[in-house]
Design a protein that fits this description.
The protein is an alpha/beta fold. The protein folds into two domains: about 280 residues, Rossmann fold, CATH 3.40.50.1100; about 120 residues, 3-Layer(aba) Sandwich (Rossmann fold), CATH 3.40.50.1100. It is about 40% helix and about 15% strand. It is built from 19 helices and 15 strands. It has a seven-stranded mixed beta sheet, sandwiched between helices. Strand 12 and strand 13 form a beta hairpin. Helix 3 runs antiparallel to helix 5, helix 9 packs antiparallel against helix 10 and helix 16 packs across helix 17. The longest helix is centred in the last third of the chain and has 18 residues. It binds pyridoxal-5'-phosphate. Pyridoxal-5'-phosphate (PLP) binds next to helix 13. Pyridoxal-5'-phosphate binds next to helix 13.
């Protein structure tokens, strides 16, 4: 029985898929502080123009530059596995497949966009890229990409992770990046916060503010900022995951997929896997497409569709998305990459259209799923990824009850070898579920009352 499929380097997709060309209802534009749509020029100090062009493109297929393909081919195409041992443990008639993005050198899907973004910056003459990182997944992916392309990389890492999670910081250092704890004394935003709260643990919102400030205030003009999820161009770069998966399923003789599942923080690995299948769904295929989030940060399942800022400090434009409010601070669950208040606008619009059926799962069920997966398939998944596994198991059990031979595909977004302390807490029985109480949901969302509201536009087909 064949349990994995590789593609050759020649079979790697040569183009990314842009769902903006096929969405039945268009995305609404990002808005500036005055409530008017922002223009590409307004983003020019933050991102290079070639990336801004990609951000607003509605071209269906976009060529992947040769040099980007050459670097991606260091670990791509990634394998697609059949989870036979997991199927057996569950006694399900379903066939479960997973796309393994954990094989990249930094250990997740994130370098797919980090390499592309670093390359476009270099093409544009940029010498140095700044970014923020929480637990360090994105910072390490960008550090990796910059080192291969010969760019400087500066990472503002949330103070508490900087102190508690030295390993990803050391990965960044190994790849030649400079990693500082945020808030830092290097930016005005950081100094202001430190003056008021000298012992603050920091936050992603503060780190974003510092990274943007460090980019736009460089007097040489050769620094730009980079974001690892949420934006259209990031999701675009990730579609190579789903495009490869389609070829691999075909090679295995699978004619139809019934369920596609991914975990969703800002939405990039989910969209990367799912959007090529959502394209089939738009054109008539019957597929359930499920983004999965934690019950403690229920952006898609309980958050309203609003215009909101991408960061706490309100430096980013207003984006039309599902959001719990830019002031929302999620409980300290271990899946750090899923602790984000918003959701990619493209994913949000696909939810509004009824093309996706989001689901929220409790932390303990996710760890149970992760441990079962590790003990059957062998790979120890990232805490974020465990949400996709838990949903795949739910679907496989449903198929067993219905007695149906469903085909289930999920994204293995990363391994958990840098996140074993979460497993430690789970084994010691120290983990709890944090379903978000209604009372805590309200306040951050109420902050959005004065902001413009996006239209809810749907074609009514799904
Ligand atoms: C960052 C991360 C996520 C969440 O980010 P998305 O943009 O939603 O994909 C999920 N899994 C892993 C392993 C991550 O590192």
């Amino acid at each position: 029985m064949q349990t994995k499929v590789y593609l050759t380097d020649e079979e790697m997709p040569r183009q990314w898929y842009n769902i903006a060309a096929d969405l039945p209802s268009p995305l609404q534009p990002p808005l500036g502080p005055d409530g008017n749509p922002i223009t590409p020029d307004m983003l020019a100090p933050v991102f290079p123009m070639n990336i801004i062009e990609q951000e607003v493109s509605t071209q269906r297929w976009i060529d992947i530059p040769e040099e980007v393909l050459a670097i991606l081919s260091k670990w791509r195409p990634t394998p697609l596995h059949r989870a036979l041992a997991l199927e057996k443990a569950l006694g399900t008639p379903a066939r479960i497949y997973y796309k393994n993005e954990s094989v990249s050198p930094p250990g997740s899907h994130k370098p797919n966009t980090a390499v592309a973004q670093a390359w476009y910056n270099k093409q544009f003459g940029i010498k140095r890229i700044t970014t923020e990182t929480g637990a360090g997944q994105w910072g390490s992916a960008l550090a990796f990409a910059c080192s291969l392309l010969g760019l400087e990389c500066k990472v503002f890492m949330v103070r508490i992770s900087f102190d508690q999670k030295p390993f990803r910081k050391l990965m960044m250092q190994t790849w030649g990046a400079t990693c500082v704890a945020s808030p830092s004394t290097e930016t005005q935003a950081g100094r202001q916060i430190l003056a008021k709260h000298p012992n603050t643990p920091g936050s992603l919102g503060i780190a974003i503010s510092e990274a943007i400030e460090a980019a736009v205030t460089d007097p040489t003009g050769a620094t730009r900022y980079s974001l690892g999820s949420v934006l259209n161009h990031v999701l675009l770069h990730q579609t190579i995951i789903g495009l490869e998966s389609k070829k691999q399923l075909e090679k295995l003789g699978e004619k139809k997929v019934d369920v596609v599942i991914g975990c969703a923080g800002g939405g990039s690995n989910f969209a990367g896997l799912a959007f090529p299948f959502v394209n089939d769904k738009i054109h008539g295929a019957d597929i359930a497409v499920i983004p999965v989030e934690p019950t403690s940060c229920p952006t898609m399942t309980r958050g309203p569709f609003v215009y909101d800022h991408g960061d706490t400090a309100k430096m980013t434009p207003l984006l039309p998305m599902h959001s719990l409010g830019h002031d929302f601070i999620p409980p300290p669950i271990h899946a750090g990459g899923l602790r984000y208040h918003g959701m990619a606008p493209l994913v949000s619009q696909a939810i509004i259209e009824g093309l996706l059926t989001p689901r929220a799962i409790d932390q303990i069920e996710c760890y149970e799923a992760a441990v079962l997966f590790a003990r059957t398939e062998g790979i120890i998944p990232a805490p974020e990824t465990s949400h996709a596994i838990a949903a795949a198991i739910q679907e496989a059990k449903k198929a067993r009850e219905e007695g149906r031979e469903k085909v289930i595909l999920f994204g293995l977004s990363g391994h958990g070898l840098m996140d074993l302390s979460g497993y430690d807490n789970f084994f010691q029985g120290k983990l709890t579920n944090y379903p978000l109480p209604e009372s805590e949901m309200g306040s951050a969302i109420r902050e959005l009352n004065g902001l413009p509201k996006p239209k809810v536009v749907r074609s009514g087909k799904w």
